[in-house]
Amino acid sequence: MSRTNYSAYMAIKNKIMEIFRTETFEKNKLPSEAALASRLGISLVTLRESLMMLALEGYITKRHGSGNYVHPSTLDYENRSYYFTEYLKKEGYQTAIKLLSQEWRPADEEARKMLRLEEGERVLVNRLVYLADDHPAVYTMGMMPEKLLIRTDVEEMSFAYIHVLIRDYMGRDVAHALNEYVPMGVPDELVDIFKVPKGTPIDSSHQVFYDIGDEPVVYNTHYFNPDYYRLRTLQNWDLGR
Q1: CATH code, residues 6-75
Q2: pTM reported for the whole predicted model
Q3: What CATH number does the domain located at 81-224 have?
Q4: 11, 59, 71, 167 - which has most CB atoms within 10 Å?
């Protein structure tokens, strides 16, 4: 954003989103920008910057000469959940994260490629499950390069918030993650964990977290139990225009 910093934008966004969630508008058309700016106590320039960001995120559509339109269907939190536990809580489950194992091992070819490592470099492999009412909903195998870790008490890691984990154990700030989704049959080693028949179709994903210097810092592979976790995405059609 050109004039409004990120923290200010987030505060404005939260106020606008509260309006979206608690009020209805005829044909979903928002009040005039002047009226919204006055109501929020911000300048028209700042409001327009915020609305542009909301349009890029898919919450609203801007139409020159017509106005701004909110999309109630995009307000569903699961479409934008950063954490598996948030999705599961929204579905009504009691959630927990259970660490199954930790081990050091040389990075294999795939890990070296994803994390830009040299042959012989080691990674810390964390295997854990996200539970929904004590049932395994997501199985994760995560890899962290040994050379990036700044602490040795890895057994004390908390996996509740990945950005906090990366900050505390690597001293890095997360910028983004890239995700590649792959349909597959449930791996043999997960048949008993998920308690599903052998060959059951499931979704999996390969996920790489990058820091603000665009260096890969964590490589995760996730497997989703179809009885508890379904993937949904939002396609903002205006971005393709």
Answers
A1: 1.10.10.10
A2: 0.79
A3: 3.40.1410.10
A4: 59
